[in-house]
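Dear Dr. H.,

I hope your travels went smoothly. While you were away I took the liberty of generating a structure for the chain from your last submission, since the lab meeting agenda had it listed for discussion. I wanted you to have the full record in hand beforehand rather than looking at slides cold. The sequence, exactly as received, is reproduced here:
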Amino acid sequence: MQPYTKIRSKRYNDVILKVVPGHFVTPNSHINYYIDMTTMKSRQSEAMECARAIAEAYASSAIVDTIVCMDGTEVIGAYLAEQLTRVGVLSINMHQTIYIMSPEYNMSGQMIFRDNVKSMISGKHVLLLLASSTTGTTITRAVQSVKYYGGTIAGISAIFSAATKAMGVPIHSLFSMADLPDYKTFKPDNCAMCRQKEKIDAICNGFGYSTVY
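The corresponding predicted structure, in token form, is as follows:
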């Protein structure tokens, strides 16, 4: 794989994205950049700055009860809950604090919630937090799942998103196509890079990547 390039957020100077050009396969698409958020999701200082930036979109929100952290964003989610509380976002939970949780997935990739955590979704205002979204398929499934379990979507946030909405709900992203204008996503059965016989560099998901040799 090629060396990564850093992209600094135009609005949030301390939030930096690392991108690697190539041919990458995700569960829902083929993409021409791998967006590496490893340190952003696991390094305390970067996660905190990321959470501060995300929280600005919800400064005027009334209620957030639960943050569902996808793609390994739990550290960011914890800091985000702290930031939302600090700016006055309320929770209707019994202890007046925000739940932070990770979803489970069934064999078809649908989010499910076990009986012991259903109370964190049912009747709650749920914020979905993702590392990245390319086609919006994962977010759409997540929104459907939250609604199925009786929750209300309070917001959707992603560090990077190629989509701007999911099921009519705006996606608040720190980085978008404007920051990576030559970013491309293809359906697996209609990939321009595959047609040109470009070698696949790695298989990627929310946990990271595995290089293809």
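Two observations you may find useful: Helices lie at 38-42, 44-55, 74-86, 137-148, 192-195. The CA atoms of residues 160 and 175 lie 5 Å apart.

With kind regards,
E. W.
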